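Need residues for this backbone.
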């Protein structure tokens, strides 16, 4: 009788273990692509497009660009010019939603990694499911700073 109970317990533990793996954290990258020729004419929203390996809900314009992520997911923002040059992502600052945003802070600062251009990283906190946030993404080209304001939705 004991071995039957042990087998059932072991089986249930395996199911819990594999279920936990399937609902674990994911890391997604949001890439801002900037056409420098159009940017120099003064309108960053016409010069920018986004792409991501996260689920994209809306990609009709840079301002409506919305990704869908889950609690505990990590998001990395990066930027590239049309000529392939990597650009600095200076900050991500949340402008809508309650409290400090989905990362536990209203503002995330870009950080250099091994001498490369700045990227911003953030991990989505718990109890954010169902919320949508609009944010300002500030990026640098030479000594100029530009801002674009996409969205992030917490779901799944």
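Answer:
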């Amino acid at each position: 009788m004991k071995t039957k109970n042990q087998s059932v317990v072991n089986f249930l533990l395996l199911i819990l273990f594999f279920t936990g793996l399937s609902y674990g954290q994911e890391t997604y990258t949001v890439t801002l692509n900037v056409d420098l020729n159009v940017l120099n004419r003064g309108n960053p929203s016409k010069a920018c497009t986004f792409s991501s390996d996260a689920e994209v809900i809306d990609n009709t314009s840079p301002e409506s660009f919305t990704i869908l992520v889950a609690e505990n997911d990590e998001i990395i923002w990066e930027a590239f010019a049309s000529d392939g040059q990597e650009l600095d992502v200076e900050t991500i600052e949340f402008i809508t939603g309650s409290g400090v945003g989905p990362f536990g802070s209203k503002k995330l600062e870009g950080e250099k990694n091994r001498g490369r251009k700045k990227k911003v990283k953030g991990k989505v906190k718990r109890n954010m499911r169902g919320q949508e946030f609009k944010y300002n993404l500030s990026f640098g080209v030479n000594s100029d700073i530009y801002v674009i304001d996409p969205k992030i939705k917490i779901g799944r």
